[in-house]
Automatic annotation (TrEMBL):
GO MF: electron transfer activity; heme binding; metal ion binding
Stored Gene3D superfamilies: Cytochrome c-like domain, Cytochrome c1, transmembrane anchor, C-terminal
Protein name, as recorded: Cytochrome c1
Keyword hit for Protein biosynthesis: no
UniProt keyword annotation of Flavoprotein present: no
Subcellular location(s) per record: Membrane
Natural source organism: Litorimonas cladophorae
Binding residues annotated for heme c, in chain numbering: C67, C70, H71, M202
Cofactor binding notes: Binds 1 heme c group covalently per subunit.
Length: 287
């Protein structure tokens, strides 16, 4: 490539950099799209990262009111939501089984159970010890309701996909991007360039204002506060969902990071003490 002027050179460099960094997104399966992946600066990344629990509280609402009609959350028990370090922890209710949020969330679901006396299959309201129930009785029923595809469990989705937080976030936002020439979308499928191959059996689940966010939050100290609820834009709901699903995929992350930090501090102090005692023990020895 020969550049006649510096300006041309700079333009060329920008174009080259853009193609290297992949500003246009390849949807896999040889499909190219103009969709630009967003990479939000997630609060939980990095060695000191923490979940944004207030966002995760809103994310639960989006999950419950939107995604839960198709997707299960089978590795989460209701009581987990009220544990210390979980989105709905309340300082006044150390035991999550007493936490009113947790109790209400559980009671909001119907759980299939066996009657201890008769052995019959019965349905009862959920209790705090229950796990989130399956949405469909079996895979065949799930397929039948979803155009042949099974909605996967979301408990560990953020861990299950490469760069899962960005993936789930962008999967929500990428609906509606223009369908490239030559790509045919058959009925029951939807164009989504973030999905491998670009075609997905899930219709866009989010739309502007789909949920009414509550004007209440539980702050970092486990206390209830009245707040101005944010607008439920698609970006906001997707961000909140990712905070919630990142927590459900790795509920012990914050604990692990703080143990790691304490271990590091301990080792630094220990090394310092060892060094000082070494100096002292060998003080009178020439070397
Ligand atoms: C009407 C049912 C339905 C609703 C509601 C729904 N989904 Fe889905 N979802 C599906 C189906 C079906 C699939 C499987 C798609 C496929 O394999 O083509 C899927 C797949 C997914 C996947 C996996 C994509 C992949 O990489 O395989 C994620 C993540 C997801 N949904 C997130 C969500 C979230 C978050 C919500 C709520 C905002 C939601 N879904 C609401 C039906 C639904």
């Amino acid at each position: 490539m020969a550049f006649k002027t510096t300006k041309n050179f700079i333009l060329g460099a920008i174009v080259a950099a853009a193609s290297v960094t992949g500003i246009a997104y390849a949807a896999g399966g040889g499909v190219e799209s103009d969709y630009k992946m967003e990479h939000p600066d997630w609060s939980f990344n990095g060695p000191f990262g923490k979940y944004d629990m207030v966002a995760a509280q809103r994310g639960y609402k989006v999950y419950r009111e939107v995604c839960a009609s198709c997707h299960s959350l089978k590795y989460v028990a209701f009581r987990h939501l009220g544990d210390k370090g979980a989105p709905f922890y309340l300082a006044d209710f150390e035991n999550p089984n007493d936490n009113p949020y947790v109790k209400n969330f559980a009671a909001d679901w119907t759980i299939e159970d066996i009657d201890n006396e008769t052995g019959d299959v019965i349905e009862r309201p959920g209790i705090t010890a229950d796990y989130f129930p399956p949405i469909f009785p079996n895979d065949a029923a799930a397929r039948a309701s979803n155009g042949g595809a099974i909605p996967p469990d979301l408990s560990s989705m953020v861990k299950a996909r490469n760069n899962g937080a960005d993936y789930v976030y962008n999967l929500m936002l990428a609906y509606g991007s223009p369908i490239p020439k030559g790509v045919e979308i058959t009925p029951g499928l939807h164009w989504n360039p973030v999905m491998d191959g670009g075609k997905i059996a899930m219709a866009a689940p989010l739309s502007e204002g789909l949920v009414d966010y509550d004007p209440v939050e539980i702050n970092d100290h486990g206390e209830l506060k009245t707040i101005a609820a944010p607008e439920a834009t698609v970006e906001q709901m997707s961000h909140d969902l990712v905070q919630f699903l990142a927590w459900s995929a790795d509920p012990k992350m914050e604990q692990r990071k703080s143990v790691g930090l304490m271990t590091l501090i301990y080792l630094i102090i220990l090394s310092l003490l060892l060094f000082l005692s070494y100096k002292r023990v060998w003080r009178n020895v020439k070397h």
